Amino acid sequence: MALVRAHLGEDAVIVSAQDDGNGGVRVTAALDTDMQDTEGSTASYQDFGHAAVIRDSLMYHGVSTRQIDALIAAAGNTGAESAIGALAGGLESVHRFESLQHGPRKIALIGPPAGGKTATAAKLAARCVIAGERVRLISTDMSRAGGIAQLESFARILQAPFVTASGAAELGAALAASDASETVFVDTAGANPFNTGDRKELTALLAGLDAEPVLVFAAGGDVADTIEMARVFRDLGCTRAVVTRLDAAQRLGAVLTASAALNIGLAEAGIAPDIADGLIPLTAALLARLLLPKGAE
């Protein structure tokens, strides 16, 4: 605490502290004023025509006052004529949008139970097949009843190779055996981020893995819980996230807050249960449309 305050000042607080695996401790700290979400906003909106509708919409979704001010300030600088265009521009300045269509060709989907990982793996595979790409599916979900059978049935329909792996060694071998021309999606068992055993098991599975870990979680959760959940998976190596059930969530404040607070890129959006077209890249324009009321322009 003394070192933290020496660097950041007397208002600093420790947000989290974790072993770094090498005998040290990684500390995340912030100023106490940054952690507070006061109602007294100092932002001025009179010169921005769409500020009111954007602010009211973000408040409805439970976005923090501090982030609302940042988004409106950024939106006002876009010069966009529509509320959707202005908010989309503001979102692009605060958040990262990085589709899984770009980047590593080996992806391990991780996240809390019932977040939609298996369906997401099938949707990602279907998108590749429709685009004429070769794909392979791997499941490590040995604990959930029917988990393997569900993904295997999707693989059969897509005529894609499917294998199972019961641990880190088998998963590493399965990834190594994949063809270089294939895109590989690994469906992992749901991990309770607040359970020490689950975290250790997932950490062991991911250790040295030749694949990018991507967080999959459902929209509509409590803001604080979502941040704490996402922080655990961020610390396990996730830099991008797939947000599922956007079609069934009324408020998206948790998605925005977690992404901004933890610098997690928003990659894909689960917008329907359909496997063929139920997943699309999560863009700033799409998110702006979801945040604003229907009919907003």
Q: How would you describe this structure to a colleague?
A:
The chain contains twelve helices and ten strands. By secondary structure, the chain is of the alpha/beta class. The chain has three domains: 2-34, no CATH class; 46-94; 106-281, 3-Layer(aba) Sandwich (Rossmann fold), CATH 3.40.50. The strands form two sheets. An eight-stranded mixed sheet has the order 5-4-6-3-7-8-9-10, sandwiched between helices. α11 (253-262) links the parallel β8 (240-244) and β9. α5 crosses α12 (284-291). The longest helix has 14 residues, at 117-130. The protein is globular, with a radius of gyration of 21 Å. The N and C termini lie far apart (49 Å). Mean pLDDT is 89; it is low at 32-47.
Q: Outline of this structure?
A:
This protein is α/β, with parallel strands linked by helices and 297 residues long.
List keywords for this structure.
alpha/beta; 12 helices; globular; 297 residues
CATH level 3 topology of the largest domain? Rossmann fold
Strand content: 15-25%
**Strand adjacency order, main sheet:** 5-4-6-3-7-8-9-10
| Mean pLDDT figure | 89
Helix-strand category: alpha/beta
